[in-house]
Amino acid sequence: MKVLLVAVNAKYIHSNLAVYDLKAYTENIPVEVELAEYTINQQQEEILRDIYEHKADVVAFSCYIWNITYVKALAEELHKIAPQVQIWFGGPEASYDAKQLLRELSYVELVIVGEGEETFAQLLQKHLLDGERLENIVGICYRENTGEICDNGIREYLPMDKIPFVYHNLDRFAHKILYYETSRGCPFRCSYCLSSIDKRVRLRSLSLVFPELQFFLDHKVDQVKFVDRTFNCKHDHAMAIWKYITEHDKGITNFHFEVAADLLNEEEIELIRRMRPGLIQLEIGIQSANPETIREIHRTMDLKKVRAKVERIREKGNVHQHLDLIAGLPYENYESFGHSFNEVYAMHPDQLQLGFLKVLHGSFMYDNAEAYGLVWQDRPPYEVLFTDWLPYGDVIRLKKVEEMVEVHYNSGQFANTMEHLVKEFPSPFDLYVELGEYYEKNGLFGINHSRLARYENLWQFIRTQIPDRADSYREWLTLD
Questions:
Q1: For 315-360, what is the HEC assignment?
Q2: In 14-163, at which residue ranges do the beta strands (DSSP E only) sit?
Q3: Which residues, 6 or more positions from 419, have their beta carbon under 8 angstroms from its beta carbon?
Q4: What is the DSSP string of 375-426?
Q5: Cα distance between residue 176 and residue 40, in whole Å
Q6: Maximum Cα–Cα distance for the chain, whole Å?
């Protein structure tokens, strides 16, 4: 009996921690479990051929917002060429409405709902090996021989100490980001996020965490991204980990953390300011500077504190800070978003991520969409089209701003020029709006510009917008 766990990642540098967890958790069960990782950029025929050549009895797909359309098509073709193979789905994009998914996809036998480690283990041992009926296994939704679809409910969450460490052999992870978790759940209840469904934060014991961190440090891996939803929600836990990597740092590994900046206390900030440049990077979700929006999406954030703490970290210049905004939230119109943009831009983040609301099945936002006049794409990633506050025309304008921020700010290629050019406009938001309009007017969107062409485009924009001062920008462009 062979089971193939399939992950279709967004990029080659990504890895899928979930399938590695499932395999590691079932190491002692006498079923052959293999892993296969691909990317959505590969040809479907190539992946289909590779899956087929594994000759598995069961193929289990890991389903996420970025791959569900691809996975559905792949699984359908697999069923045509190998109808004897059982097809299982799992992951957040399959879990939400598993019964409906099984109604739509006749070739899928069952869906693992919620956390999968223990459920997957029981499917291997009890169902595949011992022949036990599916009705006795909690944590699945499945199709009976009669065609009836049955839901066995969600399994109790596992203690974090039972989750295996998956990185004993790094051969499969060469040139890839390593993902690691020391907690599951989130104490906050942001209305657009599925993490808020599990409000109980479960922590992994530091007696396990420390040797695992040491493994990363000893093997000098490039980057470890913590997938803990709000890493610093438990002060003692966060401090212990930050102290450990600071004291045992070997000058190579970078650790990425998602934090709530306003929760950082003085002890944490002082430690962060002492760290080796590049030891950690912080992702901080601000999302909006509109107080009414923040209240409506159930976030707890003190913008004044965020601003002060981001600046305290920034002034040392040793930590990369990535700040996030979301367009399409309740009570945020075009002007309000422009204000939020300017607020975050003034914090001088190393990266400013301008994202668009994704209406995730099962989230509070999804359940209350009608109250917000919220309309979104039916296809993944379910991105906002318009709201009562933000018409589609304004969404299009913000899409242009998003691309201009990526090209001229986040790329880091125009740091000197943009530092001065922003002063020529009423606000940073106005600058990026004008850049987007210039690109649109001159047919520059949709082209894969070389780096040199990007400088030329910006030079021509400057000549158009401020012709009497354009020559002074030659030197900044040359320096960049």
A1: CCCCCEEEEEEEECCCCCCHHHHHHHHHHHHCCCCCEEEEEECECC
A2: 32-39, 58-62, 86-90, 110-112, 140-143, 149-151
A3: none
A4: EE-SSTT-BEEE-SSS-HHHHHHHHHHHHHHIIIIIT-TTHHHHHHHGGGSS
A5: 16
A6: 81
User: Chain centroid to CA 305: how far?
Assistant: 25
pLDDT in tens, 226-246: 999 899 999 999 999 999 999
Q: What is the pLDDT of residue 300?
A: 82
The b-or-e profile of 201-221 (16+ CB within 10 A means b, else e) is bbbbeeeebeebbeebbeeeb
Q: Which H or E run includes 16?
A: none
What are 78's two structure tokens? 């697999």
Q: What is the pTM of this model?
A: 0.92
Q: What CA–CA distance (Å, rounded) separates 479 from 460?
A: 17
Residue 235, CB-side half-sphere exposure with 13 Å CA sphere: 9
Under DSSP, the state recorded for 234 is S
Instruction: Determine if residue 362 is left, alpha or beta; phi over 0 gives left, psi from -120 to 50 gives alpha, anything else beta.
Output: left
What does the pLDDT read at residue 164?
A: 95
Secondary element (H or E) of residue 125? none
Q: How many Å apart are CA 46 and CA 347, to the nearest integer?
A: 46
Distance, in Å, from the CA atom of 60 to the CA atom of 7, rounded to the nearest integer, reads 9
Helix (H, G, I), strand (E, B) or coil at 236: helix
